Amino acid sequence: MKKTLIIGASNNPERYAYKAAERLLNHEHEIELLGVRPDVVFGKTIDTERKQYEDIDTVTLYIGPQRQVEYYDYVLSLKPRRVIFNPGTENHEFEVMLRQNGIDVEEACTLVLLGTGQY
After folding, report:
1. In a 3-state reduction of DSSP, which class is residue 82?
2. Which of 24, 39, 89, 112 has most Cβ atoms within 10 angstroms of its Cβ?
3. Alpha carbon separation from 64 to 30, 68, 75 (Å, rounded)
4. Considering the entire predicted model, what is its pTM?
5. Would you say the C-alpha torsion 16, 74, 55, 117 has a positive or negative sign?
6. What is the DSSP string of 49-68?
7. With contact defined as beta carbons under 8 Å apart, do 58 and 5 qualify?
8. What is the extent of the structural domain holding 8?
9. How many domains does the chain have?
10. For the domain that residue 49 is a member of, what is the CATH number?
11. 3-state DSSP: the chain helix, strand, coil percent, rounded to 5?
């Protein structure tokens, strides 16, 4: 299964990042969580420090374009296969940078991809 890093992870069940974590686990994907507040959801720690996670296949973004700038180098350093820009996170500058580094870019909803078997 695809190991996924959720950037913008939340402990709030109303947030899409929370729903994505739950759905990814339900589909037996391994997840890592990065957010602004430390917590534990679904038995996984929400990290607040940018760790060099091993074998990240997918990064799914739940932070707006204005906050993404500080994550550019970090995401590139992880060398994921792809980055998913969920609705509202689209960022042309970052997308170009990712493509130039051989990383696939998808403007899509992680929840929809999982629900339709396209993840």
Report:
1. strand
2. 24
3. 24, 6, 15
4. 0.96
5. positive
6. S----SS--EEEE-S-HHHH
7. yes
8. 4-115
9. 1
10. 3.40.50.720
11. 35, 25, 45
Residue with tokens 């929400």: 46
C-beta neighbour count of 59 within 10 angstroms: 24
Looking at this protein, which amino acid is placed at residue 6? Answer: I
Cα distances from 51 to residues 17, 78, 111, 116, 118, in angstroms, run 19, 9, 25, 31, 28
What is the distance between the alpha carbons of residues 2 and 69, in angstroms, rounded to a whole number?
25
> What whole-number distance in Å separates Cα of residue 56 and Cα of residue 103?
12
Percent of the chain exceeding pLDDT 90 equals: 98
The Cα–Cα gap between 110 and 119 comes to 7
Alpha-carbon dihedral angle through residues 51, 52, 57, 60, given to the nearest 10 degrees: 30
pLDDT at residue 34, as a whole number:
98
pLDDT band at 7 (very low <50, low <70, confident <90, very high): very high
